[in-house]
Amino acid sequence: MKSKKQIPLIIIAISVIIGFMLAVQFKSYNAHAKTDSKDISQIRQDLQKEMERHRRILTDISKYDQLLYEYENPLNHSDSLKVMKEELSRIKALGGLAEMEGSGLIITIQNTPVDEEDGGYLSTIFDDDLRYVVNELFGAGAHGISINGNRVTPTTAIRNVGDEIQMDTKIIRLPYEIKVVGDPNVLESAMKLRGFEEYFAIVNKKIIMKKLDKIVIPAYDGKGMIRYMKPVKEGS
Amino acid sequence: MKIHRIHIYLALVLLSFGFIVSYSVQFTKQTTSGTLPYSDDQWEKKQELQEKLIEEQAQIQELENQLQSIKHKVSEFEEKMGERQAEGKELLSELEEVRMWVGLVPVTGSGVMVILNDSKEVPDLGNVNDFIVHEENIRQVVNELFASGAEAISINGQRLTTISSIRCVGPTVLVNEVKVVPPFEISAIGNPDTLSTALSMPQGVLQNLKDFTNIEIKLEKKDKLNLPAYTGDTQKLVVKEDL
Q1: Which parts pass through the membrane (chain A) (predicted)?
Q2: Are A96 and A153 in contact (CB under 8 A)?
Q3: Which of A42, A202, B130, B146 has the fewest CB atoms within 10 Å of its CB?
């Protein structure tokens, strides 16, 4: 028989052990929950994205650095004006206000001959479909796009108005001829990868893609309207 | 032997001790079978990656500031040239206008802000897809805003330009190849009344989103919105020389 003095000591020892175990268990549970929310491959992907962004900003900086250098070291006045003109034409091309020329791809979306029983609702292309194509092409690195001779600009909207599809204010109808300036191989594989051929086959449309070394897309035939925005000046 | 009080205490304590041990064994079994456990090695690697990511983000922030200051110097120079020559002045105003329109400079103005967010209550039953914001929802709103006269749009600080794309890669949405997460704040500069009326008309875009999805939608008119400039590679463009 143990002495009565020993009893509290035993209970204390056991309590400490239990407390310790509970703490360990709680800790391992918490750590587990955290690791689940973000795993390594996710972080790696994020890192890749950030590195890509880093690279793009660097090219942008070098571009403006060069521009600044050309401004600051002009041979004469008319030369610095020329630099300004070049910069303007570069931005205009980006915005669709000037013609663009380069290698590229012509994508034609046309009706496939259908049986009389088919057709109807399913054989219509909607604004979403065209927007989807344009979006994927730019995502694949397209520099400029025109659909049936209408250039895509920064503010272009493609939307259904009644039964017709309007691009900005122009109605566009089948067959759609989408001209894209960019790397033809990359653009074509992006279209194939996203399964556009199958996608449009469902609505009885056929996609024909033609790679070209030289393609010219027209300028936007309107003017960029600016009424509500002002540039933010540095320091203000 | 007599049963002392202490024996009862001991029995109780040991009983709960045993219970906790068995529970913890079972619990560990459950969690390890569900997901792969992280070894110390992987933990270190993850830690390293995360540090790299943070470092990279800090560097990008710095570079963006640098880019802004260079752009500022460039426009200062152009202004000076504009003051000197009449031809320069014309060029300057056109340059400023086109840069704004294309999205190469930060702009300010009145407009609307549309906020799309994943639904907070996702039921156990039903399609989860109806409760999260998809990239096509964002595209629809953006398209409608441009169609009703928006002059500039940014999504979570990413300014849209001609070559912008709004895509979905895995579970995330990419705008200008940059990952954005909900809530998606779409800021559009234009006439606030026109834009909000166009968006909220019957059978309009927002009505459709409300009818067919369960995402949270907010529309606010704003007197002043600040949109950042597009930062990205705009250099690779092939320009037809016709000057």
Answers
A1: 7-26
A2: yes
A3: A202
Cβ separation of A47 and B177 shorter than 8 Å? no
Cα nearest neighbour of B88 on chain A: A81
Query: What whole-number distance in Å separates Cα of residue B160 and Cα of residue A19?
Result: 57
> In terms of domains, do B205 and B136 share one?
yes
For residue A234, pLDDT beyond 70: no
Look at A60 and B163 and tell me if their CB atoms are within 8 Å: no
Q: Name which of A89, A95, A136 is nearest B102 (Cβ-Cβ).
A: A95
In this complex, do B88 and A84 lie within 8 Å of one another by their Cβ atoms? yes
Please count the residue pairs, one from chain A and one from chain B, whose beta carbons lie less than 8 angstroms apart: 270
Residues B180 and B124 in one domain: yes
By Cβ distance, the residue of B103, B146, B227 closest to A156 is B146
Asked whether residue B129 falls in the same domain as residue B92, the answer is no
Report the pLDDT value the prediction gives residue A40, as an integer from 0 to 100: 77
- Of 3.60.15.10, 3.30.70.1880, 3.30.390.10, 1.10.10.60, the CATH number of A100-217 is 3.30.70.1880
Which tokens in the block code for residue A19?
A: 């407390």
- CB-CB neighbors (< 8 A) of A126 in chain B: none
Peptide bond into B106 cis (omega under 30): no
Is residue B121 predicted with pLDDT exceeding 90?
Answer: no
Determine the 3-state secondary structure of B223 from DSSP: strand
Place of tokens 């040991």: B14
Copy the structure tokens of residue B139.
């595209």
Would you give the DSSP letter of residue A195? T
Chain B residues in contact with A133 (beta carbon < 8 A) = none
Please state, rounded to an integer, the average pLDDT across all residues of chain B. Answer: 82
Least Cα separation, residue B101 to chain A (angstroms): 7
Judging contacts by C-beta atoms under 8 Å, the chain B residues touching residue A88 are 91, 94-95, 98
Can you tell me the distance from the alpha carbon of B182 to that of B158, in angstroms, rounded to the nearest whole number? 13
State ipTM. Answer: 0.73
Domain that holds residue B143: 108-227
What is the domain count for chain B? 2
